[in-house]
Fold:
Amino acid sequence: MRLDPPFTPTVSGVDPSGMPTITRNPLAYTRSATGFSQAMALAQQNTSSQSIPYQPKAGSLLPESSATPWSVQVQAGQTLSGIVREQMAARGVSISSSEALRLSQNIAQANKLPNANLIHPGQRINLESLNLTIAQAQMANRAVVASANLGQTPTPTNISSGVNKQSLVKGTTQLQLQSRVDQGSNPVLEKTLNRAVDKGFIPAQDKQAVMHKIIQLSQQHRFAPDDFARLSLMESDGLNPKANNSRCFGIIQFCDGPDRGAASVGYAANPKAIMGRSVLDQLDLVGKYFEDTGLKTYGPVGLDDLYLTVLTPAARNETRPNAALNIPGPQAAFLHVNRDTRAPITRNSILAGLHQNANERLGVEVAQRPSLQAARISAYAEQAVVTQFE
Structure:
């Protein structure tokens, strides 16, 4: 550590108030920091040339400008979830109806709206809370591109030039970072599995295998793992392999009768036998049932289509969010509009009911996203690793 030389102040007189006037050391006016000098030079250059102001590099941890907050003015006939889908689509991010509903609830909380379903023309809604979802979608897209790059066979010329090395390192880094961001990104599923272990539905040693199986199914059929947890919480109290209502059995309630769930997975003659199989075994039956019902053709699959596939697949043909669905038989009050069993069941009432049921059973409103700062750090780390390789 270098210490500055001692400095003895020199009194050169007094000011009008009677206080002594001290001669200042010339060092008091100097600042030799390199970064400061560069910043001043850049500012002078920008001022003289009227060039575009300095912008931080992508992935940097500098705070974004908040000069223009992201907000919209409500137009007649719009809903909050519809606004969310439109605004996300305008920024290149496609989301399902269930995701739009969840995000609209977050926006309602951020704007202190007592009811997300009650907005008025002319009202201004702040959408800043959507920025994190957009950042994560961009990271996910980069990870998909990176995984495709990893599957390519580089030519000798590219290897010698280092181009493919950089691509492979960058791709691997993106996949690793995406994996880190995804850790803990299925909190509803995690809490449902913990609850299932506590209730004795799943042996503790099978918990991780069950989670991996559900995530594998979600990737094959393009639905959210948390949505499968919400479905199971409604159908079987959260992955109870012995759940039944005398006609439907198991974790998603395979029902008896021709062309029903039990028949689809080979248990038409004895559907009750499904209850004798473990959750892991029943997940294999779930996969077969999803194949038979063509679930992946609806992908990315929202919570409403996922649940309708289990409840009444034919009802998926009605796509209007508030239209009454042709679903026979008595159903849980959660599924009806306003939980009134005399009211119809709609896609929106299914979405609201499954979210409410899950929250009540799990006992908490589950947060689903990591912080924006974590996403920035991941992007910065990716940039740093690639730079080190070069």
In short: The chain has three domains: 71-126, 139-183+373-389, 187-362.
